[in-house]
Amino acid sequence: MASELTPDQAIQELRDQLRHHEYLYYVEDAPELTDAQYDALMNRLKRLEEKHPELVTADSPSQRVGGKPKEGFTKMPHSRPMLSLDNAYNEEELRAWDQRVRDALPSTEAVRYVCELKLDGLSLALQYGAGSGKGEAHGAKDGSAHLVRGLTRGDGSIGEDVTSNVRTIRSVPLSISAAKLKAAGLPQSFEVRGEVVLPQASFLKLNEEREAAGQAPAANPRNAAAGTIRTLEPNIVAQRRLDFYAYFLLRDGEFLLPQQSTALDALKTSGFRVNKYVRALKSIDEVVKFIADAEPLRDSLGYEIDGVVIKVDATAQQRRLGFTGKAPRWAIAYKFAARAGITKLEDVLFQVGRTGKVTPVAALAPVLIGGTTVSRATLHNADEIARLGVRIGDFVQVERGGDVIPKIVEVVEDKAHPRGTKEIVSPKNCPVCASELQRIEGEVDWRCVNNSCPARVREELLHWSARGVMNIEGLGDAMVAQLLGQSAELGGESQVVTEEGAPVVVRRPLIHTIGDLYRLKREDLLGLERVGEKTADALLEEIKRSKKAGLARVLLGLGVRFVGERTAQLLAEHFGSMDELMTAATQDSEKASEALEAVNEVGPKVAQAIVEFFAVEKNKELVKDLAALGLEMTAEKRVTTSTLEGLTFVLTGTLPNLTRESAKEKIESAGGRVSGSVSKKTSYVVAGEEAGSKLDKANSLGVKVLDEAGLLELLG
Ligand SMILES: NC(=O)c1ccc[n+]([C@@H]2O[C@H](COP(=O)([O-])OP(=O)(O)OC[C@H]3O[C@@H](n4cnc5c(N)ncnc54)[C@H](O)[C@@H]3O)[C@@H](O)[C@H]2O)c1
Ligand SMILES: [Zn+2]
């Protein structure tokens, strides 16, 4: 207990804890604490250090930014340290900061503040110059600027070179034409700092994939973004759809323009994405109002924010205000309160998913958190339950962020919140079909491996009928439950079973497989609760209509691991029929992978999943059954537009965004060839600004000419 320690010992202990958690957060991208918990520890340390200034050391976490750079990346110094921001947690602290700012400046001077959203991602420094950093200095002659290097913040002084990953982010311009630089008032070399964020939709998709692959889900979009930008595989980064928002503009380590507000304008003009919620304001009262307006945006932005950053607008004033140890005095981050609440864990339910994965779900006494009633939270798996040490009857801290499923953060224990007594027992058998659960070596999850488990069939049916898949209206929770012989009342909960046992089966199931859907008769449906003639006819019509959905939808509906909408579409277009796909996937494994990986965007992981899917007898039978039932299993075979097999390209002039190398890379990775000279055999000439004799030759030979946009379209 801290109270028994000397201040020196207490400080040491807090520092050790903070360093440990910083390591997990910054280096491993796998925090164990929420930010609120970490901030609380940091604030304890800061208060102790304030009381005992003689104990403050330069290496204290209160004085330093970030973590150590990760192995595997080249380390590069920053042009000027990338600092942290001091925080204000309420209006009083914010007003105190405003007072300090005004006290430090002559009273005759007006102070203007720029308010920006505090994007919850990680910061990057992007250096631009005449050369692309990969050889040739394209911009040298035409005055354009090129992305030379992208660095993470690292420890604030030294960052990690993640240039090849940064190049895959669509909102980072790879080059900026001389004309645009001129319009924005930018020189040819400069530095942009900003935030990389992972949109919530990409985050949810990533976690679905991680779960399907038996990996632990990422804790939050920030950590997922940090993990992504620091993977060593640029093609993975490209798939994740990271976004970059620019907010600082520098040159040689100094702010380039006399105001932050004009810097944001210049960034926008030159083609960077600048967040649209920006305001330059004249008083702290207006700032308080901006913050109040910004907080409710949290649920609708599509990316996470954790506060508002307030900066002194004038660079000259910033210079006079200067810095403390690890943060500027001229800026402050107003942090929104964590959306959290304390409630009682009433029970733990075990849910069986489509893949058989059993997930413990907390049933909570309903509690209002950030305007939403929360009564369920995920407990992920047995490891997570053990880590939390949670028991039924405990009071727990629940946190909710953006669209993310509520999560139990910790057990609360004090006089008002006594501990629960009932241990959570993970079932040894499937709570629905009673078959013994299994755990694949190296995975944390337990799975029901019974392919005909009603819980799994239920999830399969719901997936099959879902919007964007087979689109069968009227086949939702309640109807599926009834078709499986369960009570309609159970609806979404029918597979959620407590210790008391499996869902009540009230009648003989009408269907056991997806194929059975297409054998349903009118009189079957009329026997169900609350199903009249109109409902029955409408559902049968919908089911019939779905037979025409086509191969891509069927593939998607089958729920093969990693095969999402786009992959299903590409597979359908490549093979043209289910038969051809099955033939390809069921030959010996080396040939199968080769045949499947010939499809655009299909890598070894996806290929493997397809092979495994068709190796299961039940799946093969289902596909045959569906074909016999008259479902459309063909698609128009199409050489997808991004396959440039057999085509030859010549590049000339300067493209607005792509460098010569990256255009070449893109063409080659899509199977095309890039040549240096134009001939009759050239398929396309890609011409940019100031294209010369090659363009003339193309025109005289009648070779097709593309601009950058045309090339990108061809690449899909
Ligand atoms: N959970 C854990 O274990 C753990 C461990 C370490 C740190 N943390 C968290 O990390 C954060 C501390 O790290 P920090 O030093 O990055 O501080 P910070 O995140 O509080 O503030 C600084 C950062 O804000 C970002 N930012 C977003 N929008 C901005 C804008 N418009 N203008 C300028 N900057 C903007 C930048 O990336 C900048 O580096 C805290 O939130 C802390 O809770 C958590
Ligand atoms: Zn089961």
Structure characterization notes:
This protein is of the alpha+beta class and 716 residues long. It has six domains: 2-55, Orthogonal Bundle (Helix Hairpins); 75-335, 2-Layer Sandwich (D-amino Acid Aminotransferase, Chain A, domain 1); 339-448, Nucleic acid-binding proteins (OB fold (Dihydrolipoamide Acetyltransferase, E2P), Beta Barrel), CATH 2.40.50; 454-546, 5' to 3' exonuclease, C-terminal subdomain (DNA polymerase, domain 1, Orthogonal Bundle), CATH 1.10.150; 551-628, 5' to 3' exonuclease, C-terminal subdomain (DNA polymerase, domain 1); 648-715, BRCT domain (Rossmann fold). The strands form five sheets. It has a six-stranded antiparallel beta sheet with strand order 7-5-4-8-9-10. The chain has a five-stranded mixed beta sheet with strand order 2-13-12-3-11. Strand 17 (395-399) and strand 18 form a beta hairpin. The protein is globular. Zinc ion binds at residues 352, 430, 432-433, 435, 448, 450, 453, 455.
Keywords:
6-stranded antiparallel beta sheet, globular, ligase, Helix Hairpins, single chain, 716 residues, 27 helices, OB fold (Dihydrolipoamide Acetyltransferase, E2P), 22 strands, alpha+beta
Number of helices in the DSSP assignment: 27
Q: How much strand? A: 15-25%
CATH class of the largest domain: Alpha Beta
Annotated CATH architecture of the largest domain? 2-Layer Sandwich
Number of strands: 22
CATH topology annotation of the largest domain: D-amino Acid Aminotransferase, Chain A, domain 1
- Catalogue the ligands: nicotinamide-adenine-dinucleotide, zinc ion
Average pLDDT value?
A: 88
Low-confidence residue ranges: 490-502
Q: Give the biggest sheet.
A: 6 strands, antiparallel
User: What's the N-to-C terminus distance?
Assistant: 61 Å
